[in-house]
């Protein structure tokens, strides 16, 4: 099929095809504009084939590498711009979410390239991890083979998107040439004491048979991958000491908040996950009957002002006191065994029968009697063993969670409230909900009655500190990063265990420690690497004695915590990247989903700060390395939702063959004939609303698909995908192609710029005829619209989140060109060139095709021109010669006339008189508004508004 089939047929042939069905069917009709239906097509000589245009220019780009020249070496320069979308996991199929994020990245990269920057836009594969291993098990194929096949398939799909990826920098995290340096990074951290092994209670996924980091367990205590309830086990594991950088990770969030560099939502999630809390450690002495327990229960609290309201103490199942009591209490042990199966918000508890706690304030002489009563002690699953001291003080009157627990176990018991919103509400009805804010201490607070709770809290801590029962402390929610995984498909941990020397790092010259060929699909506990004696058994690098390799692999988030740095120097065999290449960092614009806020993004910030403390990033010093950030700007795109059809009778999602779409706007259930309900939902197989981007691109073309995706919603919003709406974009492209073809065919003085042409013409405007003035108005209007569009589009490209307005602005400019056909070819050609260049980042192949029409012998648009800038040098064009003025009589519009814009200095009566004069000097004004009932000269009052664009005359 020819690229532009109609270039081979004339307008007469097109008319014959439309009137002759047999001829009509032999001609492909890829895209026909709605504004130009079949009857109008006779005026057009062709219908564009966008998919053929894509194929043509992708081939040329591949041959000449001119789409956007990749920079092999980016120097430390302000002209660099490193654009990076989060690299994909090679599942085998790209979805519309991929298409959205990678289209956005390519648009930014092409825009920066046209602006003159040296742009880096690499692509690679996040190839290790559980999904690949589990999929390989299901398909009975090695994960390496499955992953390699998927990467090849997805690379083909990515290339269909008209992206300008620098494939010379392609990397895969499962390639030994990459994970050699992941292992080197581990050893660098180990040398600094930031990678260590320790026995700890860990999260165990019984389905995937591996340990999970805290960040990989959801709020319900379930695995983020398998969805199964996570178990707790004590295992010896490897950790990264991310806590060493917690202050820097928190403090630099403020820098990332400046100028909205990072979304507020991401910053809030990271701040919450870091969880810095200033509070107090408080000791509750215990009374143990029949047990040798002497140590006080230590509790961390951020609200010491509520100590008077403590009504119980709760311990985590892992608390040392609980472990001691469980040894002789079978019922307690049985309760502990049930905890892994309970929901995270469970309010069940086990009352320890022989243990009571004493409120430390009980020893103060002015403490109310209620506070001196000994407190029940529970074992409760809602208490976290790894936060604070594994114990909480229960304050039902001032904490929602404690209130729910208390009511579960003491339904009829009163709830004591010890502070309220104001002094005149010092006592609050027990039936009320807990008061969780700061307020005024009540009569139940003894000596502190009437004081503000914040100040009282500080005084209480000082009081107890003297008795060695409390001290101010600071706590963090963040825990060190657990990186050990008991699976095969990951980076082997480069440590050798020797009975004599202990844990010994693998020497650099022995890296990479490669994955062995093992029976990786064997389903059992422990690491699959243990089954390879050849891998496990080795010699100690220090003493040459028999030793064993570590058989765990690393969390795949270790790979993604530094891959962006490897892209700067992907073929370096000796270092993760050279110090010279490292000067390219940080990434200027990073694009990806908000779901990575507290996993990948937090880990990447930690690792980059560590790298900034090494010789690999010489731009940072000992004083500045903790302020280093990997991504200057973060763009989080919204999800793509698909259209679902729902049976109104039972709420069931309908399969495609169960819906009658004869009228797409009124879908019907085939079985019942009833109207189907429509909703937009997250795409999934169970909802039958998935869309294959490759099929969509093959149908409409990559450029139309990209423009449609960007046009439908702001970047940060959820995009409700509706295939039917792409017709608006394809009509626009067809219409613009018509105009470019016509402009290219017009003779034009190519050595004269539009600016010079308009400047010369303005000097003759005083003697111009009415026809010449009309042409001047059209040409000046085009000039003004081009300048406005350049300013608006540039701002939108820079802002990124409003890329949808780029498409709408360019559509408006297209209409301006179409509505001013009498303008000079010089002005129209230059406006068309600006329009094509502005759309090139979004529709690169289509822009190339249009550029080729205007400049048949020139190189690629990305080589031939740069992004347009506004030109304010022609002051006479800033304001139009005439503007429409709506003439109202007694509030109703009776006509519109064209008059000059009023002089800025006129106002009041002077402005009114000037406008009346100008209106009556026009042909329509003289005929309509100087005689009869609409004679303006008889007006009692005239009110000009909107800068002279409207005037209301009040007549009798």
From TrEMBL:
Keywords: Aminoacyl-tRNA synthetase, ATP-binding, Ligase, Nucleotide-binding, Protein biosynthesis. GO terms for molecular function: aminoacyl-tRNA deacylase activity; ATP binding; leucine-tRNA ligase activity. One of its GO terms (cellular component) is mitochondrial matrix. InterPro entries: aa-tRNA-synth_I_CS, aa-tRNA-synth_Ia, Leu-tRNA-ligase, Leu_tRNA-synth_edit, M/V/L/I-tRNA-synth_anticd-bd, Methionyl/Leucyl_tRNA_Synth, Rossmann-like_a/b/a_fold, tRNAsynth_Ia_anticodon-bd. Residues 85-219 form the Methionyl/Leucyl tRNA synthetase domain. It is an enzyme of class 6 (ligase). It is found in: Mitochondrion matrix. Belongs to the class-I aminoacyl-tRNA synthetase family. Residues 271-464 form the Leucyl-tRNA synthetase editing domain. Gene3D superfamilies: HUPs, Isoleucyl-tRNA Synthetase, Domain 1. GO terms for biological process: leucyl-tRNA aminoacylation; mitochondrial translation. Pfam families: Anticodon_1 (PF08264), tRNA-synt_1 (PF00133), tRNA-synt_1_2 (PF13603), tRNA-synt_1g (PF09334). Residues 478-641, 681-721 form the Aminoacyl-tRNA synthetase class Ia domain. This is leucine--tRNA ligase.
């Amino acid at each position: 099929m020819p690229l532009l089939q109609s270039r081979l047929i004339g307008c007469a042939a097109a008319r014959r095809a439309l009137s002759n069905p047999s001829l009509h069917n032999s001609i492909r009709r890829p895209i026909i504009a709605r504004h130009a239906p079949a009857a109008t097509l006779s005026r057009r000589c062709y219908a564009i084939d966008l998919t053929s245009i894509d194929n043509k220019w992708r081939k040329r780009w591949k041959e000449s590498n001119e789409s956007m020249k990749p920079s092999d070496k980016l120097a430390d320069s302000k002209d660099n711009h490193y654009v990076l979308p989060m690299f994909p996991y090679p599942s085998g199929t790209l979805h519309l979410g991929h298409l959205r994020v990678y289209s956005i990245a390519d648009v930014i990269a092409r825009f920066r390239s046209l602006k003159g920057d040296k742009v880096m836009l690499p692509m690679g594969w996040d190839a290790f991890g559980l999904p690949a291993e589990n999929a390989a098990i299901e398909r009975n194929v090695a994960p390496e083979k499955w992953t390699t096949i998927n990467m090849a398939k997805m690379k083909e799909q990515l290339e269909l998107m008209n992206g300008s990826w620098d494939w010379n920098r392609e990397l895969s995290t499962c390639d030994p040439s990459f994970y050699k340096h992941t292992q080197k990074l581990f050893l660098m951290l180990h040398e600094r004491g930031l990678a260590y092994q320790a026995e700890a209670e860990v999260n165990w996924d019984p389905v995937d048979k591996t340990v999970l980091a805290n960040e990989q367990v959801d709020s319900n205590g379930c695995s983020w991958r398998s969805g199964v309830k996570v178990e707790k086990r004590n295992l010896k594991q490897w950790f990264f000491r991310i806590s060493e950088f917690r202050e820097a990770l928190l403090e630099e969030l403020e820098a990332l908040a400046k100028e909205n560099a990072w979304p507020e939502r991401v910053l809030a999630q990271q701040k919450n996950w870091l969880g810095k809390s200033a509070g107090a450690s408080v000791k509750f002495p215990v009374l143990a009957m029949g047990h040798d327990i002497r140590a006080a229960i230590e509790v961390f609290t951020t609200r010491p002002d509520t100590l008077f309201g403590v009504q119980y103490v709760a311990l985590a199942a892992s608390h040392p006191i609980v472990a001691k009591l469980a040894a002789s209490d079978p019922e307690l042990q049985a309760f502990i065994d049930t905890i892994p199966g309970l929901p995270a918000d469970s309010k069940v508890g086990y009352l320890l029968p022989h243990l009571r706690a004493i409120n430390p304030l009980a020893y103060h002489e002015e403490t109310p009697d209620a506070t001196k009563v000994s407190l029940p002690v529970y074992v409760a699953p809602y208490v976290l063993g790894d936060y604070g001291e594994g114990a909480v003080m229960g304050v039902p009157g001032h904490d929602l969670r404690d209130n729910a627990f208390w009511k579960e176990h003491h339904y009829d018991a009163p709830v004591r409230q010890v502070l309220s919103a104001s002094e005149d509400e010092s006592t609050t009805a027990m039936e009320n909900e807990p008061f969780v804010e700061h307020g005024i201490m009540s009569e139940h607070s003894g000596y502190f009655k009437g004081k503000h709770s914040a100040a009282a809290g500080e005084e209480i801590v000082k009081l107890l500190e003297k008795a060695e029962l409390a001290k101010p402390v600071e706590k963090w929610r963040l825990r060190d990063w657990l990186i050990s995984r008991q699976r095969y498909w990951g980076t082997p941990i480069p440590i050798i265990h020797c009975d004599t020397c202990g844990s010994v790092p693998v020497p650099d010259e022995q890296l990479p420690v490669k994955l062995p060929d093992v029976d990786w699909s064997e389903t059992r506990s422990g690491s699959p690497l243990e089954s390879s004696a050849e891998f496990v058994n080795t010699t100690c690098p220090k003493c040459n004695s028999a030793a064993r390799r570590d058989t765990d692999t690393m969390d795949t988030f270790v790979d993604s915590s530094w891959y962006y740095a490897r892209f700067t120097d992907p073929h370096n065999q000796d270092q993760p990247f050279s110090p010279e290449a490292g000067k390219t960092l940080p990434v200027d614009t990073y694009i990806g989903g908000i779901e990575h806020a507290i996993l990948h993004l937090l880990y990447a910030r930690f690792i980059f700060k560590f790298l900034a403390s090494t010789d690999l990033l010489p731009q940072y010093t000992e004083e500045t390395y903790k302020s280093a950030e990997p991504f200057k700007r973060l763009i989080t795109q919204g999800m793509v939702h698909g259209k679902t059809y729902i049976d109104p009778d039972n709420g069931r999602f309908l399969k495609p063959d169960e819906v009658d779409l004869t009228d797409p706007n009124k879908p019907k259930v085939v079985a019942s004939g009833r109207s189907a309900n429509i909703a937009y939902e997250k795409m999934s197989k169970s909802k039958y609303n998935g869309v294959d981007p490759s099929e969509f691109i093959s149908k409409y073309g990559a450029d139309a698909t990209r423009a449609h995706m960007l046009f439908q919603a702001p970047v940060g919003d959820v995009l409700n995908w509706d295939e039917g709406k792409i017709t608006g974009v394809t009509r626009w492209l067809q219409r613009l192609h018509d105009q470019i073809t016509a402009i290219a065919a017009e003779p034009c003085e190519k050595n004269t710029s539009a600016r010079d042409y308009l400047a010369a013409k303005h000097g003759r405007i005083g003697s111009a005829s009415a026809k010449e003035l009309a042409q001047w108005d059209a040409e000046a209007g085009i000039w003004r619209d081009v300048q406005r569009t350049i300013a608006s589009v540039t701002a939108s490209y820079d802002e990124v989140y409003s890329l949808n307005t780029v498409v709408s602005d360019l559509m408006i400019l297209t209409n301006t060109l179409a509505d001013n056909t009498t303008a000079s070819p010089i002005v129209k050609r230059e406006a068309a060139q600006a329009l094509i260049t502005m759309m090139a980042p979004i529709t690169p192949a289509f822009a190339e095709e249009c550029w080729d029409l205007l400049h048949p012998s020139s190189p690629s648009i990305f080589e031939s021109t740069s992004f347009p800038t506004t030109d304010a040098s022609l002051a006479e064009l800033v304001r139009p010669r005439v503007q429409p003025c709506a003439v109202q009589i007694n509030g109703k519009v009776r006509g519109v006339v064209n008059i000059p814009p009023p002089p800025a200095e006129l106002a009041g009566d002077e402005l009114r008189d000037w406008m009346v004069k100008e209106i009556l000097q026009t042909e329509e004004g003289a005929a309509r508004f100087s005689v009869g009932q609409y004679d303006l000269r008889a007006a009692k009052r005239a009110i000009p508004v909107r800068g002279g664009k409207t005037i209301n005359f009040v007549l009798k």
